[in-house]
Amino acid sequence: MNKLNIIRKVLEVIQGSLPVTDGTLNNNFGPVNSGAATLTEDTADEQVIKELCRNFAKVLNDRDFERLDGRAEYHLYTVDHLIELIKNNDEQSTINLFNENKIKSKYEDCEFLSITFSADREQAKVVYNVRTCVVSADNKYFKELNKKNNKKNTISVGTPFSTAYTLSVKKERETWKIGKFEASEGNIKTGTNL
């Protein structure tokens, strides 16, 4: 894909990033009553970052292969990260993974472990656990998921499991956005407690 096509695709994605009509996302990222406890000691930036991370976890994990948007989280990314995803054909890879394995999953909860700011407070590293449940999927998907988990815990249909997420976030035009994302596959924990 040449640079002009990538830029066109990025602009298309940015312009096409509209709020989800079912109300699952709050795209203004202000403090909202999401049902999760927010500590009163949190600064305004910490509250906004936590809401961004919750929204990211929700959109990433509330997915159904029958009505899948492979770029539902794209509006949460920095432009640089979005360009990388488009270069790597991330949208189609996501669609293929969910369709081939007939995955239906749901977000359950998250627990924040740390938020570490840069000296200028324009960037931060966020570490948190995200609890997810796979409602349905082909058996081959669970075999692969359990293989990555080194069979420490067996994940099956309806088993909630927790994955450690590490996000690098930064301010882009005064709005916190995700610049990098990693999920720890080797640290998956099953059960209802994070």
Features:
194 residues, alpha+beta, six-stranded antiparallel β-sheet, 28% strand, globular
Q: Please bin the fraction of helical residues.
A: 25-40%
**From N to C, what is the helix and strand string?**
HHEHHEEHEEE
Taking Cα atoms only, what radius of gyration do you get, to the nearest Å?
17 Å
Which ranges are low-confidence, i.e. pLDDT below 50, for 5 or more consecutive residues?
18-39
Query: Into which percentage range does the β-strand content fall?
Result: 25-35%
How many beta-strand elements? 6
The outline comes out as globular
* Average of per-residue pLDDT values: 81
Number of helices: 5
Give the CA-CA distance, first to last residue.
Answer: 41 Å
Sheet of most strands: 6 strands, antiparallel
Structural class, please?
A: alpha+beta
Give me a quick take on this structure.
The chain is α+β, with helices and mostly antiparallel strands and 194 residues long. The protein is built from 5 helices and 6 strands, in the order H-H-E-H-H-E-E-H-E-E-E.
